[in-house]
Write a structure and sequence with these properties.
alpha/beta; 12% strand; 5-stranded parallel sheet; 11 strands; 13 helices
Length: 347
């Protein structure tokens, strides 16, 4: 998941068994990057999973974003500020959240290159800013480019610069968000698996009395997805980012949305695996099954190459050589260990 947000509900007291990291793993998402956390305290969750004290997906994070409020006045000040991410937060990823004018944005790119960081950013519905991000060397660009369809000039710019593009269709710009389409057309509230991994009161808040009902032809996300397909086919990097809209299942919605724009199932799976690993900087360890990489894989009951919606038929998930049942996340190999109880199971 190249654009995740996890539902960490406390700042001062951490929850070692975090349900959102567990839910994503149960749905086959073995790794993700939270591209902007509200506090650096959340790096503790990454450590808990990494050291085996918590069950869940690999939880990479940028830490707090770099904002225009920093108002960098020199390259030296920019470099000094970004050093904390490299030396103290120990993350290769940062979120440059529209940090100011173009010179300030270029300072962030230059400092990131010097420090070995990968800055991702977004244009906030400003197509001209998105284009400068690709020209100036930002590693990634988040959320939909707000103009579609894209033509050869922009497609080749993003493809040839390898500016990673994660469209997050679930919260697309330019029209009704894709999330509303999937709430209207799929069962969420009574989904048995989702109820095992999601607090019931949260599902109630999210699924009862949705405020948007629209005809299918009013949604624009298939057009945004079609533009993403053009970038990928031109040799660019396109990622799958669920934006934390619905932990676990939402990632599958994002894949299905890309397919609704014309991506073939194979192209969607490429974005969801090896290209996603390249985007977050872990292709040496993740994204494909080959000697020397970490033992992450997903076993499905049905073939996603025949129908992309078969991605949501997870029989088993393996993360780092540990095998889990997809429906329960009970570990079955190399040891048998049930998933500890969540508080809402008996509520």
């Amino acid at each position: 998941d190249t654009h995740a947000h996890w539902e960490f509900r406390t700042h001062d007291v951490l929850d070692p068994q975090n349900w959102s990291l567990i839910a994503n793993l149960a749905y086959g998402v073995t790794a993700g990057l939270d591209v902007q956390t509200s506090t650096n305290d959340y790096f503790a969750y990454q450590d808990l999973v990494e050291t085996g004290q918590s069950t869940g997906q690999r939880a990479f994070m940028t830490g707090p974003g770099v904002f225009s409020s920093n108002d960098f006045q020199s390259y030296e000040a920019t470099l000094a500020y970004l050093k904390r991410y490299k030396e103290h937060y120990r993350t290769p990823n940062i979120k440059s959240y529209m940090v100011g004018n173009r010179k300030q944005r270029q300072w962030v790119v230059r400092a990131s290159k010097e420090l070995g960081l990968m800055p991702t950013t977004e244009g906030g519905r400003d197509m001209k800013m998105d284009i400068t991000h690709a020209i100036d060397g930002m590693h990634g660009n988040e959320h939909t480019l707000p103009v579609f369809p894209l033509y050869k000039d922009v497609v080749e710019l993003f493809a040839k610069t390898k500016t990673a593009y994660t469209p997050t269709l679930l919260v697309n710009y330019g029209g009704i968000i894709a999330e509303e389409y999937f709430y209207a057309t799929t069962e969420v509230h009574d989904d048995k698996k989702l109820n095992r991994f999601y607090p019931h009161n949260v599902l109630d808040d999210m699924t009862r009395r949705r405020r948007v009902w629209a005809r299918k032809d009013e949604f624009v996300f298939p057009m945004a997805a079609e533009s993403a397909a053009r970038i990928q086919r031109a040799g660019g990097l396109v990622g799958v980012g669920g934006h934390g809209q619905l932990q676990g299942l939402g990632y599958h919605w994002e894949m299905w949305g890309l397919a609704m724009g014309g991506m073939t199932p194979r192209e969607v799976l490429k974005a969801a695996t090896i290209d996603g690993a390249r985007i977050i900087g872990f292709e040496q360890d993740l994204g494909s099954i080959e000697p020397g990489k970490l033992a992450d894989l997903v076993v499905l009951d049905r073939n996603p190459l025949q129908d992309i919606r078969n991605t949501n038929s997870v029989r088993y998930v393996m993360k780092n050589g540990e095998l889990y049942e997809g429906d329960t996340l009970n570990q079955i190999w190399p040891v048998q260990k049930p998933l500890p109880k969540f508080w809402w199971w008996d509520a």
